[in-house]
Amino acid sequence: MSGALLLPIAALFGWMSRQPVVPQPLLMLAVGGNLAWVAASLAVLFICAPSLLGVAFVSGQAAAVSVLAMLEVRGLDRIAAGA
Questions:
Q1: Domain regions of the chain by residue span
Q2: Would you tell me the crossing angle of helices 24-47 and 2-17 to the nearest 10 degrees?
Q3: Among residues 9, 33, 46, 70, which one has the fewest Cβ atoms lying within 10 Å of its Cβ?
Q4: Which residues contact 75 (CB under 8 A, 6 or more apart)?
Q5: Please, which residues have CB within 8 angstroms of residue 41's CB and are 6 or more apart in sequence?
Q6: Could you report the per-residue pLDDT of 19-66, keeping only the tens digit for each?
Q7: Which residues of 32-67 are buried (b: 16+ CB within 10 A; e: fewer)?
Q8: Contact, 79 vs 24, CB < 8 A?
Q9: How far lies 57's CA from each of 10, 39, 51, 60, in Å?
């Protein structure tokens, strides 16, 4: 179910990746969504009692998404510098 819910987001990110200039509000939405994902992933680790494999998976996922958010912030900085 969660994978199906992420399909529209993946489509939006795919569309954004093909644009010569991505509108700043869309980038801000992407950054905010990814930071929320990282926060929710970390909350899962504290709220639930995942196995060692679960901790590794959720931590790895949070780390990967935080890298995406960092790259998106760099994109926002480039937009701000060019404006």
A1: 23-82
A2: 150
A3: 46
A4: 22, 27
A5: 58, 59, 61, 62, 65
A6: 888 888 888 898 999 999 999 999 999 999 899 999 999 999 999 999
A7: ebbbebbeebeeeeeeeeeeeeeeeebeeebeebbe
A8: yes
A9: 20, 15, 10, 5
Instruction: In whole angstroms, give the CA distance from residue 27 to residue 33.
Output: 10
Write down the pTM of the prediction: 0.78
Q: Return d(Cα 62, Cα 39) in angstroms, integer.
A: 8
| Main-chain phi, psi angles of 48, to 5 degrees | -95, 175
Q: Which two tokens stand for residue 42?
A: 């970390």
The single residue listed with the structure tokens 């009692």 is 49
Residue 61, both tokens: 């996922």
